[in-house]
Design a protein that fits this description.
globular, EC 4.2.1.93, Ribokinase-like, ATP binding, 329 residues, NAD, UDP-N-acetylmuramoyl-L-alanine:D-glutamate ligase, nine-stranded mixed beta sheet
Length: 329
């Protein structure tokens, strides 16, 4: 990541381009990404959909949502492309014989089928939902599964930092308010440092996890090095745009895994830590471009759902598609 700090935005995105797998006939279903978004409660059904849809639109092969039954019924009406699993339970909705242990076991059983999980979109603060996610994080770490925390998933990092501390396969995506809460939980004074330094301090306090501090520009830090993602975005601050970021990050983390496993022929010059920073930067760049494109089209009427249709155009704009074997002939 250190070397990236001396590079231009164009050059960093050029390295992201190298990380993205080409579209090859030899790949089979699931190799280019199996993602699950864990969230979705009675009150919040849009957020997990936006995240999972962004993951799919960026090229993830299999995009799942693990949510409350009530949320699942609604999310299934949004798109037939997502696989929806109604395994989560709010405390009041635990049925006869169901316990937090049994609910957590159902979700944890899915981890072996997944490359990356996103925790938080539409999750809420319900104690049972939070506890199940805490247990999922513990098991994900044992299995080396990468995860992204956002929204109420960040509440776990705030109140139970030991869940994420020191786990490098983790990206946190706080907005300004969420960042302030996380910083306070780590005794960091947000009034005394500039934003980039604050992001670095929080990442350090959490043992080197990657933090994306969202804002006018996005600061990205692992505690040792900090990048600034300053591509133009839209001017509308409608809720839910961060869900496009989490889904984009999840797919890029899948591509990172494919790169490290050398599923296609490449030079292999990029290491695990550098690739993690490239995922964070690439996800930020794609999301900012989604917002720019949607705002250019819709202006102040832009909503979070409008970013979804722009994920692929944004990817083409800021990263670019590799030529297929046929196009080389």
């Amino acid at each position: 990541m250190a070397a990236l700090g001396n590079m231009t935005r164009k050059d960093i995105l050029g390295k992201v381009y190298k990380m993205v797998p080409p579209m090859l006939e030899k790949f089979h279903k699931g190799q280019l990404g199996r993602v699950a978004v864990i969230g979705g409660s009675e009150d919040y059904t849009g957020a997990p959909y936006f995240s999972a849809a962004a993951s799919a639109k960026l090229g993830c092969d299999m995009s799942h949502v693990i949510c409350e039954p009530g949320a699942g019924q609604v999310i299934k009406t949004y798109s037939p492309n997502l696989m929806v699993h109604p395994y989560m339970r709010q405390e009041k909705n635990l049925q006869n014989g169901e316990t937090i242990d049994s609910v957590a076991a159902n979700v944890i059983a899915m981890l072996d089928r997944l490359h990356v999980i996103v925790i938080g979109p539409g999750l809420g603060r319900d104690p049972a939902m939070q506890e199940v996610c805490a247990r999922v994080i513990v098991e994900a770490k044992k299995k080396g599964v990468s995860f992204v925390l956002d929204a109420d998933g960040l509440y776990l990092a705030q109140t139970r930092p030991e869940l994420v501390k020191g786990y490098k396969e983790c990206i946190l995506t706080p907005n300004v308010v969420e960042f302030g809460r996380l910083a306070k939980s780590q005794n960091i004074d947000v009034e005394r440092e500039e934003e980039g330094k604050l992001c670095e301090k929080l990442a350090q306090a959490l043992g080197g996890v990657t933090v994306i501090k969202k804002g006018k520009v996005d600061f990205i830090s692992n505690g040792s090095h900090t990048l600034v993602s300053d591509g133009e975005g839209g001017l509308k601050r409608s809720g839910g745009q961060g869900d496009t970021l989490t889904g984009s990050l999840a797919t890029l983390l899948c591509y990172r895994k494919a790169y490290l496993e050398k599923l296609w022929e490449h030079e292999g010059e990029m290491g695990s830590e550098e690739l993690l920073a490239l995922c964070a930067y690439g996800g930020s760049a794609v999301t900012r471009e989604c917002s720019r494109l949607a705002f250019k089209k819709l202006g102040r009427s832009m909503q979070a759902a409008d970013l979804t249709e722009h994920v692929h155009p944004a990817f083409l704009d800021v990263i670019g598609e590799k030529p297929t074997e046929e196009s080389k002939l």
